[in-house]
């Protein structure tokens, strides 16, 4: 605008929130933040249990819960605390809330980037497991998974480096009479720079945070769904042929193999040898394991679908509002999209509980062990081998180890 910033430095700019914004920021947002912070803390407890860590895909869910937690905590300080400060009219409190925005704004952006890229990683990992089982066998182990997660975290921090230089606290005088020192958040010269805004805040951000993730997730999800449908049809065919045959062997043309806990129906030259052990000693066991694996895949599809849905509106909003430059205007236009992105980050626990049978078991066990209190330690010192979930995992891992040796 034509108005110089200097005019505003004289006294603190009164940031008057509209009534709707005030209600949103002081009541609705904090409810979502509180729910999300609690639910992601529970997620972290559940996914860090030993029986969950055995399964590499859960490392991604653990990382996702951590990045969602970072985003939610940071967003609380950026979106809700300033409203409380403003209504308190206490210069010290306002000053403090301003410093917090300057610190937590870049962290919220970093957490968001992290969540997006961990979601991409878990989808790609699952896609490889479902659609390219022999490739995943060679490349997937917990150290590889941890390495790509670390890479995603580093990328999130690097991509958002300039965010740390977009805002600064500007000292100002609160009113002409008392002249109390306080401060207000102002965009820095960098953020006001048209080239920076166009190249980084508009173009790069749109590509990295929306176009790329949407393209990858949509493709990967469609492929996973198609493969699941195919394997479901094949399983139906196998079941009918099995009932016709009356003996317990697998039809010779297909055999169900377990790779790193994934199920894949792969053609085999001859069905001889080891089919009994491959099936975990019984046909029922294999079908149950496969159903369980497909359960994890369905859970992932649900999570990414929710992710795409909530971020799509945020994306549309972003495109519409690309022109704005002033920070507080900017932050208001971001209200709806940020809110939806936060709802998405907060509500993954619902999907885990609906679709993740193993998540449910561990969740219930933790609540029983800790009466809903205490920290999330592993369960009390009873032989863990007797817990059903753990036994199934071991069985699963043994099968895949056997299977690996046989195919070498």
Tags for this model:
408 residues; mainly alpha; Rhopdopsin 7-helix transmembrane proteins; two-stranded antiparallel sheet; 4 strands; disordered N terminus; disordered C terminus; G protein-coupled receptor activity
Helix content: over 70%
The largest β sheet comes out as: 2 strands, antiparallel
CATH topology: Rhopdopsin 7-helix transmembrane proteins
Instruction: Give me the secondary-structure category.
Output: mainly alpha
Quote the distance from N terminus to C terminus: 69 Å
- The assigned CATH architecture is Up-down Bundle
What is the count of distinct domains? 1
Strand order of the largest sheet: 1-2
Mean pLDDT: 74
Number of helices: 14
| Series of secondary-structure elements, N-terminal to C-terminal | HHHHHHHEEHHEEHHHHH
Number of strands: 4
What Rg is obtained from the alpha carbons, in whole angstroms?
Answer: 26 Å
Q: Strand-residue fraction?
A: 5-15%
Q: Enumerate the spans where pLDDT stays under 50 for 5 or more consecutive residues.
A: 1-11, 250-285, 379-408
* CATH homologous group name: Rhodopsin 7-helix transmembrane proteins
CATH class descriptor name: Mainly Alpha
What general form does the structure show? elongated
Domain G-protein coupled receptors family 1 profile: 39-352
Keywords: Membrane, Transmembrane, Transmembrane helix
Subcellular location: Membrane
GO molecular function: G protein-coupled receptor activity
């Amino acid at each position: 605008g034509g108005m110089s910033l200097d005019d505003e430095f004289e006294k603190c700019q009164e940031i008057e929130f509209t009534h709707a914004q005030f209600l949103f920021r002081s009541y609705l947002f904090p409810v979502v933040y509180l729910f999300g912070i609690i639910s992601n803390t529970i997620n972290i407890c559940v996914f860090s249990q030993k029986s969950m860590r055995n399964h590499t895909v859960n490392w991604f869910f653990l990382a996702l819960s951590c990045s969602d937690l970072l985003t939610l905590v940071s967003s609380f300080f950026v979106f809700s605390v300033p409203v409380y400060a403003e209504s308190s009219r206490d210069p010290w409190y306002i000053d403090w809330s301003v410093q917090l925005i300057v610190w937590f704004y870049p962290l919220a952006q970093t957490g968001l980037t992290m969540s997006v890229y961990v979601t991409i990683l878990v989808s790609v990992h699952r896609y490889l497991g479902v659609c390219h089982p022999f490739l995943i066998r060679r490349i997937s182990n917990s150290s590889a998974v941890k390495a790509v997660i670390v890479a995603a975290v580093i990328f999130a921090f690097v991509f958002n480096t300039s965010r740390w230089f977009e805002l600064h606290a500007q000292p100002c005088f609160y009113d002409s009479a008392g002249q109390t020192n306080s401060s207000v958040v102002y965009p820095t010269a960098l953020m006001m720079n048209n080239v920076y805004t166009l190249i980084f805040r508009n173009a790069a951000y749109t590509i990295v945070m929306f176009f790329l993730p949407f393209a990858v997730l949509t493709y990967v999800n469609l492929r996973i769904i198609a493969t699941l449908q195919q394997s479901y049809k094949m399983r139906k065919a196998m079941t009918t042929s099995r009932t016709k045959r009356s003996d317990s062997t697998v039809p010779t043309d297909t055999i169900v193999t377990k790779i790193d806990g994934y199920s894949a129906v792969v053609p085999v030259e001859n069905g001889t040898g080891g089919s009994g052990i491959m099936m975990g000693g019984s046909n029922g066991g294999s079908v149950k394991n496969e159903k369980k694996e497909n359960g994890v895949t369905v859970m992932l599809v649900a999570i990414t679908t929710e992710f795409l849905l909530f971020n799509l509106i945020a994306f549309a909003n972003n495109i519409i509002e690309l022109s704005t430059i002033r920070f507080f205007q900017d932050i208001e236009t971001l209200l709806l999209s940020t809110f939806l992105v936060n709802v998405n980050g907060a509500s993954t626990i619902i999907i885990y509980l609906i679709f993740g049978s193993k998540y449910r078991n561990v969740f219930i066990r933790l609540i029983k062990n800790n009466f809903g209190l205490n920290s999330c330690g592993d369960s009390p010192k009873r032989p863990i081998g007797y817990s059903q979930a753990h036994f199934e995992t071991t069985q699963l891992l043994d099968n895949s180890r056997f299977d690996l040796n046989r195919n070498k």
